Amino acid sequence: MLKTKNIFIAFFVLLILCFGVIFYKLTNSYLNFLLLKQYEQKIKSLDDVLKFSLLEDLNSNNIKEFAQNTRADFIIFKDDFEISSVLNADLFLNLEENKIYDLNSKRVLVK
């Protein structure tokens, strides 16, 4: 009787742990999905601003102001032309696109 009770308790604890791990994985992946969509929306808003010429000219001051308004930092590379709202943009050159990175306790999306 005692052995059977211990086996059921161990099975119950194992079952609870499995459900906990599955819940954590699903929640974490969903939060990363929401974060990715939020970052993509901020990038799309910058693209719309540039597409519809809402900025008179494209320079670092405009990008820094836009970054403050959207609470996101932007780095624009085009050929030899670079505009950034970040002090050291060279950190982001070798990062893979469409992936979220943790750099200095901040989330970064490269696109």
Instruction: Quickly count the domains.
Output: 1
Beta strand %:
5-15%
Shape: elongated
Helical content band: 40-55%
Compute the number of helices: 2
Going by helix content, strand content and strand pairing, the class is alpha+beta
Order of helices and strands: HHEEEE
Provide the spatial order of strands within the biggest beta sheet. 1-2
Q: Sheet with the most strands?
A: 2 strands, antiparallel
Work out the radius of gyration.
23 Å
Distance between the termini: 61 Å
Beta strand count: 4
**Uncertain segments:** none
Mean pLDDT: 79
Description:
One of its GO terms (molecular function) is kinase activity. With 111 residues, the chain is of the alpha+beta class. The chain is built from 2 helices and 4 strands, in the order ααββββ. The chain has helices at 2-51, 60-70, and strands at 75-78, 81-84, 100-103, 106-109. The strands form 2 sheets. Strands 1-2 form a two-stranded antiparallel ribbon. A two-stranded antiparallel sheet has the order 3-4. A hairpin with a 2-residue loop joins strand 3 (100-103) and strand 4 (106-109). The termini are far apart. The mean pLDDT is 79.
